TrEMBL record:
Pfam families: ABC_tran. Residues 11-245 form the ABC transporter domain. The keyword Translocase does not apply. It comes from Polaromonas hydrogenivorans. This is ABC transporter ATP-binding protein. GO terms for biological process: transmembrane transport.
């Protein structure tokens, strides 16, 4: 384990149910993500994928079910400050998730202040380096950044508290294809270096199977199937719904990881 790595944590979600004023967004879903694993959630629009991530980090109202970090010595209750520090989320739209009137410096300093962490200076510089931007970006505003740079800032903001679990909600779908690949490679690199656990939602099966080892297929708020990405790529699927999802995702082919630079 290097100095930037901490003990990996996994997440056990059991019989999760989320409703909005009686409307059932997530009916019943269960899955276990091992420490250090990269896990994807796929399904048609409205199947409840984002709601699962939101419920994990306390942004959607859980009606019933349990969520528990696994692999650590302590048990942190969902919703507690300690849980929130270990589980961070990156949203789809970096422009919407970053306050437009705050500089990068302030955006990165805020979570540190909330959690009472003192060495902000060092952490901000390190976070900017880690996402490949450097300190030259520190006093820019979100509108002075490209889409890819904004998403790198959103990733830096999520990582600055040194979480063990990263929830990624369509992290690249608002980006151009070439920038998308760069951000996916960055995420993959950060996961390896930091021993992170990923739970990623995407409508793009190629992206999920590129980044994730295992995945869950959702339909109408329920788990349809849990399978390995390699099984999906080889079309070894048990459920007709999964097959139809693959057919709908035209031209789906598992992307091989980009070759490292020479
Ligand atoms: N805040 C909310 N209030 C009421 N209903 C909501 C709310 N958020 C989500 N929903 C509903 O819950 C259902 C699941 O939404 P969710 O965003 O989780 O789906 P999704 O699978 O992530 O879809 P997409 O791929 O289109 O983002 C949808 O029918 C949606 O309209």
């Amino acid at each position: 384990m290097t100095s930037t790595q901490t003990q990996a944590l996994g997440l056990d979600v059991s019989r999760l149910r989320v409703t909005y004023d009686g409307f059932v967004a997530v009916a019943d879903t269960s899955f276990r993500v091992a420490p250090g694993e990269s896990f994807g959630i796929v399904g048609e629009s409205g199947s409840g994928k984002s709601t699962v991530l939101r419920a994990i980090c306390g942004l959607a109202p859980k009606e019933s079910g349990t969520m528990q970090l696994v692999g650590g010595d302590e048990n942190h209750a969902p919703g507690s400050k300690a849980f929130r520090r270990r589980v961070q989320m990156v949203f789809q739209d970096p422009y919407g998730s970053l306050h437009p009137r705050q500089t990068v410096d302030r955006l990165l300093a805020e979570p540190l202040a909330i959690h009472g962490i003192r060495d902000a200076e060092t952490r901000i510089e390190r976070a900017l380096d880690e996402v490949g931007l450097g300190t030259g970006f520190r006093f820019r505003y979100p509108h002075q950044l490209s889409g890819g740079q904004r998403q790198r800032i959103a990733i830096a903001r999520a990582l600055i508290l040194e979480p063990q679990v990263l929830l990624l909600d369509e992290p690249t779908s608002a980006l151009d294809a070439s920038v998308q690949a760069e951000v996916l490679n960055l995420l993959e690199d950060l996961r390896r270096r930091r021993n992170l656990t990923f739970i990623m939602v995407s409508h793009d099966l190629a992206v999920v199977t590129h980044l994730c080892e295992r995945l869950m297929v959702m339909q109408r708020g329920r788990t349809v199937e849990l399978l390995a990405s390699s099984d999906l790529a080889a079309r070894r699927v048990a459920e007709p719904y999964t097959l139809s999802l693959m057919q709908a995702s035209s031209g789906f082919r598992r992307k091989e990881p980009a070759a490292p630079p020479p």
